[in-house]
Amino acid sequence: MANEKFDELDILRDAKAPAPGEAAKARALAAAMTAYDEAEKNAAAAQGSGEGARLTDRTIRFWREMMSKKLVAAPALAGLVALPVAGYVAWHVMEELRLAGAPGGAPQDSLTETKAPERPRLETAREAEVARRGIDDALVAQQPAPAAPAILNRATRDMQVGGHAASKHLALPAPAGVAPEPHATQEERERFRSFGTNPVRSALENPVSTFSIDVDTASYAFARRSLKEGFLPEPDSVRVEEMINYFPYDWAGPQSAEVPFNATVTVTPTPWNDDTRLMHVAIKGYDVKPAEKPRSNLVFLVDTSGSMQSADKLPLLKNSFRLLVDRLGPDDTVSIVAYAGSAGTVLEPTKVSDKGRILAALDRLEAGGRTAGEAGIREAYRLAQESFVEGGVNRIMLATDGDFNVGEASDEALKRLVEDERKGGVYLSVLGFGRGNLNDAMMQTIAQNGNGVAAYIDTLAEAEKVLVEEASSALFTIASDVKIQVEFNPARIAEYRLIGYETRALAREDFNNDRVDAGDIGSGHTVTAIYEITPVGSPARMIDELRYGEAAQGEGVANAGEYAFVKIRYKAPGEQTSRLIETPVTDADAVSSFAGASEDLRFSVAVAAFGQKLRGTDALAGYGYDRIMEIAAAARGADPFGYRAEFLSLVRLASALQGKR
């Protein structure tokens, strides 16, 4: 009998496992996907707070790898692989639910509550890192390391990580007879600063307009993503000047660094109102030559909180910084600080000549925990001061998706912090990533007061534009605290309206006060400001004339032939006293027809009209998107990167989405 049992066991041992049937494979894959979706719902707490039961990081990484590479790459193996993996995942879910609900047991934050062994330094060998992560990471490590992102033609790059055309969720073919699980929609928590649109002002009562220049571009990129996802952007997310200044223009620039920028003023008819004109102020910064560029000391301050896990956040962020590192010189320095739960130095100041070490540190960043933004900023400033380059670029590049919810969380507190630190010569720029948690108000506040720029990165193509094509503008400041003041001549101009710059308005007396902060201009930057002006005697006048206006004006007006007088104040790098540039605007600066203006001017006006339409500005209520399309298409001109072609597609989308906000 024993021998018979032994023979039967031998037969069973040597027998081949029967192939799974289609129904069994479908049930296994459906169970696996359900377990995965449930795990994602449990891990959806804002900023990765860890409230409630959720899968361990190792399980998530293992499951993501299986789903994104193995199951999709080999659907025939899906049934065989999915069932044991689903069991492994489900066991973890049930075990953590049991622990979370045990008497006296409270949910633990994955980073702030659990005391994990101290991490080895991230600069150590890859073998030590794999050993720390465990056998599941060893499986992932067997896959070929991702190559540095290639620089592709812009027409083909939207399919990159986080691209506009990419789906929000991984798309797997649904098994026959199995209904796919709907994905939960993440709660929208975007924060935008609320502001009103500039009103029409009387040139007699308020002849002077003063504002800080703005070179940010975040608003355009955010509006683009909204439109490509099928809805109109919120009006408060639209800052018209940022949309205009998103595009490069070939304005006339200065000939030497002695004069850091040049201003060109043009007066044209207004496309949307036959009875007004536009006064167009175009500024171009001096373009620093490669041989003249100073050394850079950069600190990458990276948000690694739990909310950064999606493909358009931390993965896109890491690839974006790879592009920037490839742009830097061998003597430039890079440091990396990550913040989640608590802030820590990931990479001490390292020369770019040791690029492999920098890229390896970036690759090992992982998302998980709450957001200790304040501590992260303080640590980043410490590293920047430690490697400070006299006469060079000393800048923190903060990359985040949203709130700083640990430490000093208020925008005002963060503003005071960066204001104090910028006095030491370290500036701060902000790169926003992702949707659902974007704190645009905070980004604007700390970028403006940190003497930096704010950009929104929604694709790798946008990262290339901001960090590669415009690296000089983003890093090398040629003039700081740049302010514009325009005085209108009431003898010729009855009314005026500044288009955009609402959040950059300054008091009249601030113009001559060198203690008042304003925007900076980087190497090669272009800045455009547009006023809609109403000539004296025009039927478009909105404000009644004063009964005693002529008496208040006195006997005659000096320089009566001028439209206006434009003044620009700026500080040269390292100086505390501002310099002044003055430009009178006369008939010599006017063109008789809008079609006679340059292509760049006409295209910038089309963008200004588009931004005003998105904000719902009354002045363009009767002006259609089709007319904006006509102007932009006729003024498209040279478009080597496809920015203007993309703008035309956005106008078409906005036209189709009218009334659907």
Q: Can you walk through the features of this model?
A:
This protein is an alpha+beta fold and 661 residues long. It folds into three domains: 17-106; 207-289 and 478-541 and 559-656, Sandwich (Immunoglobulin-like), CATH 2.60.40; 294-468, von Willebrand factor, type A domain (Rossmann fold), CATH 3.40.50. The chain has helices spanning 2-14, 22-42, 57-73, 78-101, 126-133, 135-141, 218-228, 240-244, 314-327, 355-363, 373-386, 411-422, 440-449, 460-469, 471-475, 549-553, 599-615, 625-634, 643-656; strands spanning 201-202, 208-212, 261-270, 273-285, 296-303, 333-340, 342-351, 393-400, 427-433, 454-457, 477-488, 493-499, 519-522, 526-535, 564-571, 579-585. The strands form three sheets. The chain has a six-stranded mixed sheet with strand order 7-6-5-8-9-10, with helices on both faces. The protein has a five-stranded antiparallel sheet with strand order 1-12-14-4-3. Strands 2, 11, 13, 15 and 16 form a five-stranded antiparallel sheet that branches. The longest helix has 24 residues, at 78-101. The radius of gyration is 29 Å and the shape is globular. Mean pLDDT is 78; it is low at 43-60, 66-86 and 88-187.
